[in-house]
Amino acid sequence: MKFLVSLVIFSLFLNGFATAQTLIQDSCKKAFAKDPQSSYDFCVESLTQDPQSKAATTLEDLALASTKNVAAKITNLKGIVAQDLKDQRYQDIVEDLKLCLGFYKDANDSLKTALANIKSRDYDGANSNLSAALNAPGDCEDDFKEAEKKSPITNENNILYKTIVIPLAFTTML
Ligand SMILES: *[C@@H]1O[C@H](CO)[C@@H](O)[C@H](O)[C@H]1NC(C)=O
Ligand SMILES: *[C@@H]1O[C@H](CO)[C@@H](O)[C@H](O)[C@H]1NC(C)=O
């Protein structure tokens, strides 16, 4: 009996795990059907690494989790830039980096609103607030281009952009 119960629990666990994996793959496939394979790959890879996204059982959950995933990325990136400033690592781009911190803060605020939007099932609102957040990485890079200086965080901004596109695509599917 004990064995049977364990077996049932184990099966349920496996089943839940499989559902989550399928949800991520199916949602990413639908979201990036018209995009290069790399967009799908990035979507699956990014969400599979995120415990909350992996635990999601509905597209709503996944939209919420992937938005939180972006917020964590932004906070992480903000930490990197703040540390660079503190260490005075880049003397000639201090103002540019500070400007980027401001963009990240605005994006973070937009994400917070987007989370509230998703929770209240206002997916259009979530979509426009995520679109607003999507501007941050490009605005940051544009500032470096205009100043004719080399951005030390181009790669991070590219990854951030691709990470925001995920919940943005999901909210259009809801
Ligand atoms: C984003 O907002 C959260 C609170 O919702 C906060 O903990 C975090 O430090 C903020 N990150 C940035 C980059 O402003
Ligand atoms: C964010 O969502 C709110 C609804 O909560 C909406 O009124 C607002 O226009 C959205 N913001 C942007 C920048 O689209």
Automatic annotation (TrEMBL):
GO terms for cellular component: extracellular region. Pfam families: PMEI (PF04043). It comes from the Eukaryota. One of its GO terms (molecular function) is enzyme inhibitor activity. Gene3D superfamilies: Invertase/pectin methylesterase inhibitor family protein. Residues 1-20 form the signal peptide. InterPro entries: Invertase/methylesterase_inhib (IPR035513), Pectinesterase_inhib_dom (IPR006501), Pla_a_1-like (IPR034088). The keyword Disulfide bond applies. Keywords: Disulfide bond, Signal. PANTHER family: OS02G0537100 PROTEIN, PECTINESTERASE INHIBITOR 12. This is Pectinesterase inhibitor domain-containing protein. It comes from Arabidopsis thaliana (Mouse-ear cress).
